[in-house]
Amino acid sequence: MTWATPSIIGSAAFDRTHRAAVERLLAARNDAGHWTGRLSSSALSTATALNALRLVSAADHADRIAAGADWLVATQRPDGSWGDTVDSVGNLSTTLLCWAVLAALDEGAVGTSPGGARAAAIDRAAGWIRHHTGSLDGAAIASTLATIYGRDRTFSVPILTHVILCGRCGDPRAATTWRIVPQLPFEFAALPASWFRLVDMQVVSYALPALIAIGQVRHAHRPSWALPRWLRQQATGPTLARLAAIQPDNGGYLEATPLTSFVTMSLAGMGHARHEVARRGEGFLVKSQRPDGSWPIDTNLATWCTTLAVTALAAAGRLADHLDARGRAAVRGWLLGQQWRRIHPSTSAAAGGWAWTDLPGGVPDADDTSGAVTALAALAAAESGTESSTESSAVEPAVRRAAHEGLGWLAGLANRDGGIPTFCRGWGRLPFDTSCPDITAHFLRAAEAWQSAGAATRAGHRYLARTQRADGSWEPLWFGNQHHPTQANPAYGTARVVLATLDPRGAAWLIDAVQPDGGVGPAAGIPASVEETAVAVEALARVAAESPMADLRDRARAAVAAGVGWLLDRSAEGTRFPAAPIGLYFAKLWYDEALYPLVFTVAALERATRLR
């Protein structure tokens, strides 16, 4: 493929864009000197939070509920649906949640909408749902959700619970209404966490709070028969106690509005609105609402954003040129303070990992641990003035110790297939407990940054070789593209693996993915985004500089030039960075992060400077 975009690396336009992007990224730091970012507002989060506050005390939260409901009405898509972000395509899950809560609020006359806008929104949503499920009957809704989510009940059961508690499938006090909701085995939560994989859990590891609360509300309204009923009665008290024990101090499970809302509404729906867990959840939701009435999908990705920013600024080995000694010390001290020094009470994760946030609801995970370890290496290199100083005696003992504890934590997390999962060694076959290429690649980058090689890194490379697709690409877990036929994002996944491994087949796939105008999307005919183009450019810039294959280096250099040209144009030379909903949160919920297009572009341009 040939591109019309000439090589402009080193041109005045390149330098202006590079300088503007770096300055913008540095200006995005918070008062403490690190990065917080800003997650998109979420219709799904807003709908679940509204239902939780309605059930806890509609009167106490009337103004908050009205503001949230008005935000939902204002952001409904013309076809009557809602997507996970205001830029997302409509989907059944979010539309069901919004329709149900708006209808419940309308019946209860909670808040107002000018000119009957709320009633019109409810009617449009009902029509959209009928088109996709056949009817508004509970059985039809449950059947369609089962088709979407399959064996994984992590999200399908909470959706049904929300809809029923809103009174959309009959009287929520009647046992027959709850027959469409599968009974989650909340009694298993009384067992040691190490036993969970032995009992065929049908939710993933992070969803223990929902397992308990939603399992209990269903059991309270429609108890099982005989022995299961007796077992669940015996487990009710102990599992509620565990629910309280694993709740963070601020009330927000995983800092996630939907998860906290599902727990809170379930407790309120079984008459426990004043339970300590429900009260703390209520407090978290009140504090999390934004001025426009909406809620984000999660509070923030501060650790992830900070480590991405540091590694982006360090991509050309010039972190000290961008971030002065005081700034580096602030980030380094903050990162060291975020490492978990004890077993996590919710997931039983060992000490040594990092969560995605500095807030109490964070849980140690592989991606953020790899990111922190890599960022600490970049900070150490900046102190010595070399690109790879992690073996130097000049590295602070606290930094070296933290990094090696993090690498040990990651190695201990590896599944038997050699890949790295997200939170813990897999409980089973559900997505977020299985290995994935992008997280494994990030682990390999972290190990390389500290010149650490061993059995875990060799196993990681073998895992990536086995999971490479026939066309040379890899698909990630935590990122997707809503326009792709299977909502996958091989551009992101392949870029992350190529950046870590310089794999020639993966690099060739990325080169072929560069469109005639220089942009990169996940497949032919799908629009490019800043995020996807930037990660591809960063990976190919490393290939162009370091691949042992001369022909591949030349092709990669040409692709980088085309991609850089596209980024300069799309960002208006570093003055605008539109975010795309390519992030996938728990249960395939789309989000965008305002910092992603900026930080990925800085990383791409920094890498490209090596090709001058």
Q: Key terms for this structure?
A:
two-stranded antiparallel sheet; 4 strands; mainly alpha; single chain; 612 residues; Glycosyltransferase
- Name of the CATH architecture of the largest domain: Alpha/alpha barrel
**Large-scale geometry:** globular
Mean pLDDT: 91
The third-level CATH topology of the largest domain is Glycosyltransferase
Account of the 3D structure:
The chain has 612 residues and is mostly helical. It folds into three domains: 1-31 and 476-612, no CATH class; 41-296, Glycosyltransferase (Alpha/alpha barrel); 300-467, Glycosyltransferase (Alpha/alpha barrel), CATH 1.50.10.20. Helix content is 53%, strand content 2%. The chain contains 23 helices and four strands. The strands form two sheets. Strands 1-2 form a two-stranded antiparallel ribbon. The two termini are 22 Å apart. Residues 198-204 have low confidence and may be disordered.
Blueprint of the fold:
Blueprint: H1 12-27, E1 41-42, H2 43-57, H3 62-75, H4 92-108, H5 117-133, H6 138-149, H7 156-165, H8 208-221, H9 226-245, H10 257-269, H11 276-288, E2 295-296, H12 302-313, H13 319-322, H14 325-338, H15 366-384, H16 397-413, H17 437-449, H18 455-467, H19 490-501, H20 504-513, H21 530-546, H22 550-570, E3 583-585, E4 589-591, H23 595-608
Antiparallel strand pairs: 1-2, 3-4
Helix pairs in contact: 1-23, 2-3, 2-4, 2-10, 2-11, 4-5, 4-7, 7-10, 8-9, 8-10, 10-11, 12-15, 12-23, 14-15, 15-16, 15-17, 17-18, 17-19, 19-20, 19-21, 20-21, 20-22, 21-22, 21-23, 22-23
